[in-house]
């Protein structure tokens, strides 16, 4: 009788363990991670142009993107509401995928530029340390730092 009880207990334990593993694997496959991509930042201190180039990796849906620009560790009063065509704190329309009139997918090889207006604080001058943080769905994708030329 005890060998039968032992076999039944092992079967019950195996089924429960398999159920726990199946639930864990299912939960992992449902999680979506932030996109993975490489970027390069260029800042022109004379024109206050901030350019970000997508070097490679996953495409980024700019409708889900937040861009945070800081000058010498102080965030701009008006952040670029990408995608946009005209916005307070910026001169003209942005170029590339930051422009609302273009495709919303930001792919490798594409550049996006915004020009910070003199009315936005702090202003960008040659020699300033500029940081651009890219966030998709509350997940930080990149933090880029460059000294304005």
TrEMBL record:
InterPro entries: Pilin_N_archaeal. Residues 2-73 form the Archaeal Type IV pilin N-terminal domain. This is Type IV pilin.
């Amino acid at each position: 009788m005890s060998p039968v009880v032992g076999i039944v207990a092992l079967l019950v334990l195996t089924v429960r363990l398999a159920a726990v593993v199946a639930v864990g694997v299912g939960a992992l496959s449902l999680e979506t991670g932030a996109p993975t991509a490489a970027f390069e930042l260029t800042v022109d201190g004379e024109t206050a142009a901030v350019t970000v180039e997508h070097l490679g990796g996953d495409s980024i849906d700019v409708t889900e993107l937040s861009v945070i620009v800081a000058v010498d560790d102080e965030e701009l009063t008006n952040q670029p509401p990408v995608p946009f065509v005209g916005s307070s704190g910026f001169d003209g329309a942005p170029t590339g995928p930051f422009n609302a009139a273009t495709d919303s997918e930001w792919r490798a090889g594409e550049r996006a530029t915004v020009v910070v207006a003199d009315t936005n604080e702090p202003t960008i001058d040659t020699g300033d340390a500029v940081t651009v943080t890219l966030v998709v769905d509350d997940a930080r994708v990149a933090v880029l730092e460059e000294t304005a030329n």
